[in-house]
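User: Sequence recovery, please. Input:
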């Protein structure tokens, strides 16, 4: 198969995504105002809670078996390496270009978390339908491609709301601490300036009370606690133990957001795994002669709305970047280089090394998805994290806009190369 045919196979799905995304962007403009912010939020909720879980459950239930699950073990490892290497490169960008503290969380998130789920759900089935595809029968390719993409979406969601979420939380809190420290210094300075303007008698009063000496306040010498007894010691130990447990639980819930970790898309994947792995459930629900096939058909109808809805939402969200605050051009270029040059090259090395060591089974579609996970733009879930911590929403919109504009060309080039590598 020639390089020209591979380029056409790779470019047409990206063009389809670009056209539908453009429709979403036009619909979200103030002049058209069909897909405004409230409409996008409502549509996103429908996709998040209904369409996406249904799509994941149906595709995995149809294609996954226990043997196949064991063959796909390298995908979580691949995605974890993807996220860790991306965050390491983000750290380098922050120090090279001396990025301001307020947008460091944005840079970390943009480089670490790629759109390894939603975009794959759109691109892979479209590539399977092309005549020059090296993946064989289009129907079988689409079915297995959607199951691989659904698994990628579930693993990516878990990593985003555990690994990336905590990076954003720590980085944004560090930036807020710096801001609070600066504000405190300015308040202390202004207070000192105010004291210097007071008469000498008032200065003496202010400085003498600042130390709060015990001689000035005799009641400070009184004991604050009762005398030590065995009952009091026991009660104190119980209280301290319970406070430690509650503090540990608060820290644990702060570190890992369990509600977002088990998002509806992840629950859909778990249900799909259960149906696919348990033969009795699979025979009862999957297939043209299954007695409960109405459940499968209904879920398929709901899942079919996922892909066009995602593209419209993606296009509508990019409009925000046109009217947002600016960010250094060097930082935008650095993020684009990481996402579309450094990570894909690293990904080729990792996947090729895994193939050489026999860690990846010889399925060209599976290998293609492993490679494509390194060449996607930033994940849309980053927006929710940044909004949650108020850590540079305007800058994120600008980065998203340019990242997805460049993605149309970058995905075409890398998809062509990846198709050539696996064919």
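Assistant: Recovered sequence (423 residues):
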């Amino acid at each position: 198969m020639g390089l020209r045919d591979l380029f056409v196979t790779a470019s047409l799905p990206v063009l389809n995504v670009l056209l539908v995304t453009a429709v979403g962007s036009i619909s979200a403009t103030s002049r058209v105002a069909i897909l405004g912010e409230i409409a996008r939020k409502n549509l996103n909720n429908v996709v998040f809670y209904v369409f996406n879980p249904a799509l994941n459950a149906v595709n995995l239930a149809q294609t996954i078996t226990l043997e196949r699950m064991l063959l796909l073990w390298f995908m979580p490892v691949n995605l974890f390496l993807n996220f860790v290497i991306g965050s390491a490169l983000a750290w380098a960008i922050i120090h090279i270009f001396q990025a301001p503290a307020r947008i460091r969380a944005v840079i970390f998130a943009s480089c670490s978390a790629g759109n390894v789920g939603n975009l794959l759900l759109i691109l892979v089935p479209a590539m399977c339908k092309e005549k020059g595809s090296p993946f064989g029968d289009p129907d079988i390719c689409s079915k297995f491609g959607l199951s691989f993409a659904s698994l990628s979406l579930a693993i990516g969601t878990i990593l985003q709301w555990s690994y990336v979420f905590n990076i954003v939380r720590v980085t944004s809190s560090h930036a807020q601490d710096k801001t609070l420290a600066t504000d405190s210094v300015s308040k202390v300075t202004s207070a000192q300036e105010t004291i210097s303007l007071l008469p000498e008698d008032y200065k003496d009063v202010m400085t003498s009370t600042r130390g709060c000496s015990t001689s000035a306040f005799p009641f400070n010498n009184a004991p604050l606690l009762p005398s030590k007894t065995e009952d009091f010691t026991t009660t104190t130990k119980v209280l301290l133990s319970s406070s430690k447990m509650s503090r540990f639980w608060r820290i644990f819930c702060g570190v890992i957001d369990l509600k977002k970790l088990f998002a509806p898309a992840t629950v859909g994947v778990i249900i799909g795994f259960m149906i696919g792995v348990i033969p009795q459930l699979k025979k009862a629900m999957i297939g043209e002669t299954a007695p409960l096939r109405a459940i499968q058909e209904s879920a398929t109808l709901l899942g079919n709305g996922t892909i066009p809805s995602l593209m419209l939402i993606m296009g509508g969200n990019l409009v925000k970047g046109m009217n947002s605050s600016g960010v250094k051009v060097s930082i935008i270029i650095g993020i684009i280089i990481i996402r579309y040059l450094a990570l894909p090259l690293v990904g080729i090395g990792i996947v090729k090394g895994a193939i050489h060591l026999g860690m990846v089974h010889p399925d060209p579609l599976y290998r293609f998805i492993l490679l494509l996970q390194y060449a996607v733009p930033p994940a849309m879930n980053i927006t929710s994290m940044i909004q949650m911590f108020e850590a540079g929403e305007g800058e994120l919109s600008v980065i998203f806009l340019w990242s997805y504009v460049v993605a149309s060309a970058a995905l075409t080039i890398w998809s062509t190369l990846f198709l050539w590598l696996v064919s």
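DSSP finds 18 helices and no strands in the chain.
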